[in-house]
Amino acid sequence: MNRHLTIVLLLIAALSGPAAAQSPNIILIIGDDQAWFDYGFMGNTAVHTPHLDQLASQSLVLERGYVSSPLCRPSLATMLTGLSPSKHGIAGNDVDGYNRRADLDRPLRAEFHRIPSFVRSLSAAGYRTFQSGKWWEGSWQDGGFTDGMTHGDPEKGGRHGDVGLQIGRKTMKPLLSFIDRSVSEAKPFFVWYAPMLPHTPHNPPRRLLQKYTSSGLAEDVAAYYASCEWFDETCGTIFSQLQRNNIVENTVIIFLADNGWAASSTNASDPNQKQWKQYALRSKGSPFEAGIRTPLMISWPGKIAPEKNSDLAHAEDLYPTIAALAALPLPDHLTGINLLDAEQRRQRQTITGVTHSIHNMTPGDPDDTLQYRWLVHQEWKLIRRFHGIDTTQFLRVHEWDTEEVRLFDLANDPHEQHNLADQHAELVSRLTRMLPGPSSPPQNPDSASK
């Protein structure tokens, strides 16, 4: 054989074979509607989350993680693309009510899928990729997964996960079987595990509900905490499957929640709460910490040193972080950081996000329904009120709030009880200038050259 050809072949083998063998498996666990403080490892002694507590003890735990939006669909869309809702175009959960007009939602999804995502990058790099749980953007095939559960057909009840929502609540078998198949085929794999837990309906197993009701908690809080532990148990099932397959040391686990939640009874003293029974007003759907903050943790035994810190983290960082873990190409337009880079985290001082109307969007003009912009700068948090349209007559979770500007000192007031805006007018002005303005979705790469 020609000597030069031999050298080339050896180089190809060195670059492809071992690299592929060393690619870590990646499991992304996304909690659904759980407040940042409702975990044992975050200091809650009333709710029991032993499996996630154990994961936290083995993880880089970023206690000040944030999502881009306090609603699941735009929040998940940011995780996938690394873009804000104003840029990826998914500002709320539906185009029209509860997607009564599927013909309006399909073109929105089609435009969304023209934006690069880390799932498509992983699949293109040879990963087997599996979708389960919450998924709004059509079928798993539409999202670029190699395997999955959600069909996404509105004629068959497809809206936000359909068959995929059985995961965790009814079965874990499809996910566990996917892991087994991937291991047997010696393929690196990625799992999107986004069960509708602890999301309502809070109907946990009776044994768990009795455990919390016997503690004297309010009925809605007990049911929610029991659902949190139910979710934790399903995570434990995944961890056990990794152990059975002897792949713990080559598997990265990333955890965060899509947005927060708090029981309505915890806000009973607020007269406005009487108009809204589903959950506490300053939680899901709101720009307050209980709506947008989440612990974000990354575990890779033997590779990532366990640590808890208060560095700012954002859902926009998932794409850059996963790209670094799997040696994927990274699109130039992303502004998130690799969370495993301590220096990048140290240099970051500011993160931002938005809140839009919940159940209506304006395709092509995502900020038409803008309700809030918020910013966290070091320990300060600014919230500015906007008044975008809300055509959903039966869901007006924002109408109670007429306060235009809020400023909180999160270091001393993590639950945002004291608005300091009037005391720090100059700081409010400076932080307001740092807020990003309305913007359009990114230009389709296919049309840029036309």
Structural account:
There is one protein chain. This protein is of the alpha/beta class and 450 residues long. It has one domain (22-346): Alkaline Phosphatase, subunit A (3-Layer(aba) Sandwich). It is 30% helix and 17% strand. It has helices at 3-22, 50-57, 72-81, 85-88, 102-112, 118-124, 173-184, 206-213, 219-244, 289-292, 318-326, 342-347, 425-434, and strands at 25-31, 59-66, 128-133, 147-148, 189-194, 251-257, 293-299, 307-314, 350-356, 370-377, 380-385, 405-409. The strands form two sheets. An eight-stranded mixed beta sheet has the order 4-3-5-1-6-7-2-8, with helices on both faces. A four-stranded antiparallel beta sheet has the order 9-10-11-12, with helices on one face. Helix 8 crosses helix 9 (219-244). The radius of gyration is 22 Å and the shape is globular. The N and C termini lie far apart (47 Å). The relative contact order is 0.16. Mean pLDDT is 90; it is low at 3-21 and 439-450.
Task: Quickly describe the structure.
The chain is α/β, with parallel strands linked by helices and 450 residues long. The protein has helices at 3-22, 50-57, 72-81, 85-88, 102-112, 118-124, 173-184, 206-213, 219-244, 289-292, 318-326, 342-347, 425-434; strands at residues 25-31, 59-66, 128-133, 147-148, 189-194, 251-257, 293-299, 307-314, 350-356, 370-377, 380-385, 405-409.
